[in-house]
Amino acid sequence: MAGVSTPSPVPPPIAYLDHAATTPMRPEAVDAMLPFLTERFANPSGSHGASRDARLALDEARDDVAEALDCAPGDVVFTGCGTEADNLAVLGSARRHGGLAVCPAAEHDAVLHSVEHLQGRVVVVDAAGAVDLDRLAGALDPSVRVVSVMTVNNEVGTVSPLADVVALVRDRSPQAVVHTDAVQGFQWLDLPAVVAGCDLVAVSAHKFGGPKGVGALVVRGGVALEPLLMGGGQERDRRSGTHNVAGIVAMAAAMKATVASREATVARVMALRDRLLDGLLSEMDGLSETVPRARKVAGSAHVCIEGVENEAMLFLLDREGICASAASACSSGAMDPSHVLAAMGLPREAAAGSLRLSLGWSSTDADIDRVLEVLPEAVARLRRRAPVG
Amino acid sequence: MSGGVDSSVAAALLRDAGHEVVGVTMKLWGGESDTGCCSVADVDDARRAAQQLGIDHLVFNFGDDFTAHVVGPYLDAHMAGRTPNPCIECNRHLKFARLAERADLLGFDAVATGHHAKVVRAALTGGSWRLGRGADRAKDQSYVLHMLGQEQLAKTLLPVGELTKDEVRRRAGVLGLRTAAKPDSQDVCFITSRGGRRGFVGTRVPLHAGTVVDTSGHRLGVVPAVELVTVGQRKGVGLPGGGPARYVVDVDVAEAVVTVGSAEELLVDAQRAGACTWVDEPPGGEVLVQTSAHGVPRSATVEQVPDADGIGTIVVRWHQPQRRVAPGQSIVLYDTTDTFVLGGGVAGSAGAGAEAAPTQP
């Protein structure tokens, strides 16, 4: 079926506020990858000169990634995406060592579905979506072999108390490894410091200006995993499959650019985010911040708006060129109710009016102006329901 | 849009007429589905069709509403021994209510679907909107749209209702729609061929074995689930073959008794329907009445029955005795020329009292 209306004029300029879904690529990353899509195309595992050229690029990229994540180059396992890195960490640990898997209820599906698949324990989170440490303590015992806690929540932006998690796991489940899904963390936090005690760390290139289709799992020395893919034994038998050289090189370039500019970007984006939220709060009734800013990363603005449905709101924003999101989009493209907001204890009606505006390295003042111009009007329109009957 | 020919051609016709058209697929059911409706595969088909037509495509998740207004009542009806029609409830509560309200809220002037039926504009009929049978009588779907009233019809477009199905297919071919060969959706979207009705209902509510008796009360056999037996049903009640045909004439879930009888014993002179809605004014007098999606309309006289609850109830007095309509099925009235829908209701609905008056010997 189709809705019918009168034709609209020229499309408005795009205001991109969905960096948590994916980011535009950084020019450094595009420049870095192009040669590997053209003349430097060889397989780095070969034995000829062209392969050696690709191998050099791969090895240098690995060094750069290791430096950005403060680990040994040999600890870096390149994967096809963040989801694969999370799967390798959780499933790979459980398949190698047996024992129980544990994670909080607000994890990304890449972790949550892996733990559920293993029939592990899912732990309650607090009202901000961070793991409840008391409940985590209750779920830990010597039979637990892998604990996975995200660095930053992908929907609401809450930062996890990872140091406390690590201490708790070492105390109660001494044989367990600690994995953290840092896919939403690298672009905002001094990641090596934040994940210092973790055994496994997953990142994804396209969340910080790199291309889609490449991620990495840091596997600290001595941590053994069962590989998910069987094949040629690349990545020291931890991840078979021909290397995505172009993607890996671009990820390394995006990492370097991110680290080099992180402090300035965080300060700049946080000011933009605060202006956005303060502006919305002052112009609209019935709008609340889902999580206090002090607990969130700089780029995250997640709000709940009373009296509107986010599917309708997103349509009106989209019409005005604003790219935003609500809960995570499912495979069909429909908005499914968010398991994160449900885990936080938000009533379904409140979650129905949730909106995620996520900023990133490319965000500008103009983006914020556009949202402040469009969103209050869109909400007012949706609240002004046509009389029924 | 389902991605099938009817909704895709409907969108194309409106696009070509100069409207701004946005394709919408409702995500209604998160569980298993293998029919041509509501599944993720259908969303993919619909999106591809919309892309080919050069129109935007949206997916709206109305899963909660579908569960509340379609799946829940479907289970309740079976529990009460009625035979529900969930596609009609989906039209009533989802397509022409939830979706129509959303469309209105977003500034759209109308919702168009690929149904084979006609909306006749008020200006042409001297005041009121009318709902007519589709141009292709064999594909007519006006029966499942009988709940549309004046305000809904004013904001509904049914562009393919003016065309034959062959013409729709021809136009889909001209458009080069990749889904042109997709079969029509027919079955209830949440019932899979593997699990069937029994699998769906039985895993959600308790089903009970029942005794099969004849109209004199003699015990003839047993059925595994009295809740799934339908009035008018001939097979599947565990009776041996041979002899005269026997039909289910009554289902009593409370007593777990299924009564079977001859074809004659299934006949009634009159039929009640409740929860009636009307396209315009409540009709009275001579009408044609259709009791299934592709059933033959039969002539009857209709009477409005005063109802304390304000739920429209009617008695249909058949000119020739007709088979009793299973409680829960829709009874739809047409004008005597068999051109326009007058409205309809549900056989044996609340407030209808005895759902059927038996034929006098």
Provide structural commentary.
The complex is a heterodimer of chains A (about 400) and B (about 350). Chain A is of the alpha/beta class. Chain A folds into two domains: about 15-25 and about 260-385, Aspartate Aminotransferase, domain 1 (Alpha-Beta Complex), CATH 3.90.1150; about 25-255, Aspartate Aminotransferase, domain 2. Chain A has helices at about 25-35, 50-70, 80-95, 110-115, 135-140, 160-170, 190-195, 245-285, 310-320, 340-345, 350, 365-385; strands spanning about 1-5, 15, 75-80, 100-105, 120-125, 145-150, 175-180, 200-205, 215-220, 285-290, 300-305, 320-325, 355-360. In chain A, strands 3-9-8-7-6-4-5 form a seven-stranded mixed beta sheet, with helices on both faces. In chain A, helix 4 (about 110-115) links the parallel strand 4 (about 100-105) and strand 5 (about 120-125). In chain A, helix 9 (about 310-320) packs across helix 12. The longest helix of chain A has about 40 residues, at about 245-285. The two termini of chain A are about 25 Å apart. The radius of gyration of chain B is 21 Å and the shape is globular. In chain B, helix 1 runs parallel beside helix 2, helix 1 packs across helix 7 (about 165-175) and helix 3 (about 65-80) packs antiparallel against helix 4 (about 85-105). The termini of chain B are far apart. Mean pLDDT of chain B is about 90; it is low at about 350-360. Chain B has helices at about 5-15, 40-55, 65-80, 85-105, 120-125, 150-155, 165-175, 195-200, and strands spanning about 20-25, 55-60, 110, 115-120, 130-135, 155, 210-215, 220-225, 245-250, 255-260, 265-280, 285-290, 300-305, 310-325, 330-335, 340-345, 355-360. Chain B folds into three domains: about 5-175, Rossmann fold, CATH 3.40.50.620; about 205-260, SH3 type barrels (Roll), CATH 2.30.30; about 270-355, Elongation Factor Tu (Ef-tu), domain 3 (Beta Barrel), CATH 2.40.30. Chain B has eight helices and 17 strands. The longest helix of chain B has 20 residues, at about 85-105. Chain B is of the alpha+beta class. The relative contact order of chain B is 0.13. At the A-B interface, strand 1 and helix 9 of A face helix 1, strand 1, helix 2, strand 2 and helix 4 of B.
